Amino acid sequence: MEVALQFAGRSRTRLVVIGAAAAAAALAVAVAPAAGAASAHYVALGDSYSSGVGAGSYTSASGDCDRSTNAASQLWANSHAPASYASVACSGAKTTDVTANQLSALSSTTTLVSITIGGNDVNFSGVMEDCVLYSTSTCVSEVNTAEANARAQLPGLLNTVYNNIRSHAPNAKVVVLGYPEFYDLSQSSGCVGLSTQDRTAIDQGSDLLDSIIATATGSHTNFVFEDVRSYFVGHQICDSNSWMHSTNWLDLDESYHPTASGQSGAYLPALTKATG
Fold first, then answer.
1. Burial of 29 (0-12, 13-18, 19+ CB in 10 A)
2. Helix (H, G, I), strand (E, B) or coil at 258
3. CA gap 163, 168 in Å, rounded
4. Among 198, 182, 174, which residue's Cα sits nearest to residue 274?
């Protein structure tokens, strides 16, 4: 059984002041929005990784979609001050939910879109739940089934939703963000909870999901895939400063989602890199 442990990640910046003018110039570069950001019309689409489940501070207006003020899209909007920003990302969303419920937020004036999508289409949350509750053989079997379904079905589902996004936002750059590997396998032997075999299968399933998403993204003009896995290195479950929730028995929906530190320390810099 996984033990729910949460750690607040903290980054520290060291500034060496050479002179007042140099320091002011450096600060101006550090805080200046990217070129064109102020004129951007930005819409965040997708599932719980985009809405910010696990990051706390959910807006009452978002209801069961659990949109967080700590989500990377909101943090990006806070720092870049785009001309407009809206998040319609929703916990539990599949590709079909994006098409049915979220695309109305897009228009010909939309210039930037971000999205995480695909995990719920292959029942990743259900697999993770069964891996916690049942045996290693059940976990590995369900991961294998999810991988087979992902290979067979996900490319077509992603291409459909990407085409629908393009038709609703013909002038937008679309940033497709991936999913993290959940476990630091190098620390698994001393980590309470699932077996290393379980954790290896889960990480491999996440890797396959990212690979399929990256391939589908690459076939669409002005779509870019941004891999978040490297940002989570050293901050996975089993690391002492984890940016991922393990099983949270007090709020199961938050399990296996990024904390606020995961949104600010991983998804935000990935989004910022992709947007320039």
1. exposed
2. strand
3. 9
4. 174
Place of tokens 């393009």: 166
Task: Give CA–CA dist 236/242, Å, rounded.
Answer: 5
What tokens does 169 get? 């936002």
Q: CB neighbours of 196 closer than 8 A, spacing ≥ 6?
A: 185, 188, 189
Contacts 24+ apart (CB under 8 A), 23-32: 31/79
Report the distance separating Cα 88 and Cα 98, nearest Å.
Answer: 9
Q: Count of alpha carbons within 13 Å of 55, Cβ hemisphere only? A: 30
Taken as a whole, the chain contains a residue count of 276
165-207 per-position pLDDT tens digit: 999 999 999 999 999 999 999 999 999 999 999 999 999 999 9
245 tagged catalytic: no
Tokens (6 digits) for 5: 């442990």
Structure tokens at 274: 């992709």
Catalytic one of 168, 257, 261, 264: 257
User: pTM of the full predicted structure?
Assistant: 0.86
Q: Tell me how far apart the alpha carbons of residues 49 and 55 are, in angstroms, rounded to a whole number.
A: 10
Catalytic hit among 41, 48, 91, 114? 48
Measured CA to CA, the distance from residue 39 to residue 42 in angstroms comes to: 9
User: In the predicted model, is pLDDT for residue 134 greater than 60?
Assistant: yes
Instruction: With both helix axes pointing from N to C terminus, report the angle between 72-80 and 268-275 in degrees, rounded to the nearest 10.
Output: 50
- Is 161 a residue whose pLDDT tops 90? yes
DSSP 145-186: HHHHHHHHHHHHHHHHHHHHHHHH-TT-EEEEE-----B-GG
In whole angstroms, what is the distance from residue 232 CA to residue 215 CA? 21
Indicate if 235 belongs to the active site: no
